[in-house]
Amino acid sequence: MLRKRLIEQFNLRSRLKFDVEDGRIWLDENRMLLVHAKALAAVRHELFETLGPRRAQGVLMRMGFATGRQDADLATKLVGAGDDYDVFNIGPVLHGFEGVVKSEITEAEIDWEKGSFFGTVEMEGSWEAECHIEHYGVGGECACWSIFGHASGYVSQFFRRFIVFREVKCVARGDDRCVMVARPAEAWGDDPFLDNFKSAEGDAPFRELEAELSSLRGRPPSRQPPGRLVGASPGFRAAFDRMAKAANTPVTVLLLGETGVGKEMFARWLHDNSPRAGGPFIAVNCGAIPTDLIESELFGVQRGAYTGAQQSRPGRFERADGGTLLLDEVGDLSLAAQVKLLRVLQTGEVERLGDDRLRKVKVRVIGATNVDLKQAVAAGRFRADLYYRLATYPVEIPPLRERKSDIPLLAVAMLERLSTLYGKTFLGISDWALQVLQDHDWPGNVRELENLVERGVILAPDGGWIEAEHLFPDGPLQGMGGVAVDLHGHVGEAAADEGIYADLLTEGFDLQAHEHRLLRLAAERARGNLTQAARILGITRRQLAYRLKRGGVD
């Protein structure tokens, strides 16, 4: 009865969504899987046979611990929505909701302020105990390792304190039921059982042996490491591999791609992995410097060259001597500056503005632009001879929308760096938030992604998950026929509170016409992607397609 009341009180069923068309199941912002219990039991058996009982038990505990923390994230969102103990009890309810085990807290000593929990939990129908008996029969040890790992992760995350569960009775060893007890980690003393929550150092020899075997099998050597560059998509690998081949050469490289794809990051990698790595790396944005100053910035200025030039100073070419000079947005250079740049590239000599002395410089030039230089040459805005000099070795960097498989990798890498910068820690980026990022078109490319992740780091609570609402904090999506719809496709309660539905029910109200308009707006917002439009509306794609067809909406 308690479980049913909690499910209804906190609308847990409404948080579980099946998107059959996209092949995804969501529990709040976490992606879930329906897995055959026998298949999971086979994997568990393989772990025991391959790693041995002790190491397999540790792996299962840590796996359970991770899933428990994710379930706790859902529960902590509901704190304040009801009695604290009811919210805390969502953990056992969720585990039953997920088909793992039916559990009940029979004893609990809780200090909410200190975050302390001592308790006893009884369990029925443990899938883990059942599969253990199936493979090994009734033995002398408890078997629900992933389950009490889950309980430990859930309670630890909920109370923000390391709380450890341990099974003391189990049907897998002949007891009448499964029972686990919990207490703060320090209350267990020096029990070696706690070592199961750490990644075992014993893994290292196995990894070394695997590497040695791979070498003996003639496995090809790994590719040159990408350093701070992040990506694994075919488009990224093609661009990176092409650039890597030029790293140890003096060739002038031209990086092409839209604004924000990371051209400067590619240029820095090229410098750091070249023979000039010990020299300076100088980057100049040619489009950000006024036309009348670009020559003095690039080539330097001699004292008295013009009014205000009170002292001589070197330009970017001289400052980059022995290293690398990145000319970002090189397509924006004036024709006069292009002439001088071509001369420097041909002779390796620079002449400061207002000076007649030539200075020899050894600089590797990397050009970067989002302009189609061939079109600029045809239009007379860019010199053909300079273009052919710069485009000796072009590298096209694909936009982020063409390498969406890199988005999770990039987001995680950015999160690690930014969380350190802001002094915060996070469990990660929620599955739903990653899905929302994948669905975005990314007109601003990698730079836009970094801005969104930084925004999420600022807005998300310390120690929690970065969710879609932290990445897109501007509130619910508006424009759906006057009804607010959030990122999950739920109609906003605020709109109902303001009486929007009551206002609609005037004389002559046409329900079918309003439905057609709402469906059309959803389809337009999703740019014709019916799966995404259906998700916004909270229905299946098939239901949406049927309603559109019925209403004559193309």
Structure description:
By secondary structure, the chain is α/β, with parallel strands linked by helices. It is built from 24 helices and 18 strands. The strands form 6 sheets. It has a 5-stranded parallel sheet. Strands 4-5-7-6 form a 4-stranded antiparallel sheet. Strands 1-2-3 form a 3-stranded antiparallel sheet, with no helix packed on it. Helix 22 packs across helix 23 (530-537). The chain is elongated. It starts with a helix and ends with a helix.
Please specify the SSE layout and strand pairing:
Layout: H1 2-9, E1 16-19, E2 24-27, E3 30-32, H2 37-51, H3 53-77, H4 84-88, H5 90-97, E4 102-111, E5 116-124, H6 127-136, H7 145-159, E6 163-169, E7 178-184, H8 203-216, H9 234-244, E8 253-256, H10 263-272, E9 281-285, H11 291-299, H12 316-319, E10 324-328, H13 335-347, E11 349-351, E12 358-360, E13 364-369, H14 373-378, H15 384-390, E14 393-396, H16 407-421, E15 428-429, H17 431-439, H18 445-459, E16 465-466, H19 468-471, E17 477-480, E18 483-485, H20 493-497, H21 500-504, H22 511-525, H23 530-537, H24 541-550
Parallel strand pairs: 8-13, 8-14, 9-10, 10-13, 15-16
Antiparallel strand pairs: 1-2, 2-3, 4-5, 5-7, 6-7, 11-12, 17-18
Helix pairs in contact: 2-3, 2-6, 3-5, 3-7, 16-18, 22-23, 23-24
